[in-house]
Amino acid sequence: MTTYRMEAATLGHVEEEVARQKSVLSNLHNPYPSFISRLPTEILQDIFIHCARDYHYKHMCPTKSVPSWVNVSYVCRHWRNVALESPTLWSYLFIMSRRWTEVLLARSKQASLKIRVSLVPRKWLSCVGMVMKHVERIQELCLHLPASFVLPKLSSRAPRLQDLNITVEYPNSSVEWPSLLFDGDTPALRTLRLSSCPVPLRSFTLSALTVLHLVHIPARFRQNTEEFLAALSRMQDLQHLYICHALPSATGFLSSAVFKTFEKIDLPHLSRLRIRALLSTTVTLLSCINIPLKTQVRLECNSERNSSLDHYALLRSLLAQRYKDQAQSNPTILSLVIESTERDAIGLTFSPRQRDTTSMTYEAWDCDTPLYIELNRLMVDRDVIINDVCSSMSLSNVQTLSVHRPWFSPAFWRRILRQLQDVRYIMIFDGNMPDLSVLSLTDHTAHDSEDEDVHLGGLTPGDRGQSHILAPRLEELELEYLTFFPDNGSNLSGNAITRGCLFEALSSRRLEGSPGRLIMTRCDIPGTARFDMVAVWGGGCFAISERVHSPDVDSDWDSDWEVEEEEQEEGEEE
């Protein structure tokens, strides 16, 4: 009897546990059983469209297989019905075959089409032509085509077209493109990018344009300066303007009567301006447009055979008018980066960031740097041009000067440091150690000619004959990957000095407050290994406070220097 009661109790406990588990499972299923199957149709459509859009902007068709997002139409009957009843989903066209093209055009119904095509095989070019017959429905069109494929004259109307991007691969100057694509009937066009594409701007309605990219237009199809300016005058809403090797030389226009009386074009909404062109063309565009001070400007100027100092003088005048004469509205420039590139070009980065030692490129937009200039194929003295450009800027607040691959003469350093009276940190990187003897105690401007002072933005003639401390607030000098000439070696280049010369120049500086700091990292002397060093200087003293030796570096050189400095200090005290 007792055993029976125990079995009954155990059985009852099991039944209770089963009931409890069923209750838990029931609560998990209710009140939202099969949640994914109960999603509203609108949400499912949005999810499907998001997948298609994400794939569309990450991949340029053609692809080897059908895009993965198409599989949503094969999951179940409900999902297939939802997908087929969403024309927008099928408007993200992919071109693989004639059959798929016909299916997509049918399923998209009258939805606006988005097309991205890249170097389609010749057998699929007919599919591209099939899509182009629906040009009145196209909203976004991005074509990356071989030069052998020529677009036919498209429909006379493209009322929905907002974004047009055409790139021709290896353009052939002998291929004739239609002079007009849309007969100028593109009223909704907002973004226009043409790369190596010989299509004139008169093919489009430009009054609503916000982004214009013209890149590497073949020479025989480039519009002259007056034609381009006439088209630009209709783009009052323009926000981004990129001109890269797309216009011919404007030397003739600069010397014409039209230029002297030209009424400037207002582009009040422009936030980014990038010009990569001949010097005369760059100067012309800057002269003929009015843009906000907040506009970020990237310039890459290529000198021409007939480039003259007048062109550089005009560039300097334009920069001065924009950045110096209106300094009260200009973002404060705290860092100046000068870079000599491997292709004999000079890059100048004017940065509002403190201790910024990173050079930019003419196409970089990652920070609010107001101006970047790259000068190529300079046919005049590089030192003169750099000083000339820098003198046109408001550099009174610059605290960081960074120079990559230096070659500059002492005269250059004297002139540039006159403009940077507040500089506190100088970094020199990669190359031969330049002659910084100008960092000695005083700078006697009487040695400079009047022409240098006036033309290069130095001190005025009235200041000549006076002594000035160059970079009086300099606190830190950092040298990295620099080569010093040995003490007994000859300096054939005239642009580099020995360590002893540098130490003498620094130790003679009399600083108020704490001494300056010298950091040398991975520097070398021919015939020795690289060395690192940290030292302090100022007020007639020079002392090495820290040093990391390479295994084969002679350690006696610097200890001898310290002993010599100590003896000099003792003599001064006596």
From TrEMBL:
InterPro entries: F-box-like_dom_sf, F-box_dom. Signal peptide: none annotated. Transmembrane segments: none annotated. It comes from the Eukaryota. Residues 553-574 have a biased composition (Acidic residues). Residues 36-95 form the F-box domain. Residues 550-574 are annotated as: Disordered. It holds the Pfam family F-box-like. PANTHER family: F-BOX AND LEUCINE-RICH REPEAT PROTEIN 6, F-BOX DOMAIN CONTAINING PROTEIN, EXPRESSED. This is F-box domain-containing protein. The lineage of its organism: Eukaryota, Fungi, Dikarya, Basidiomycota, Agaricomycotina.
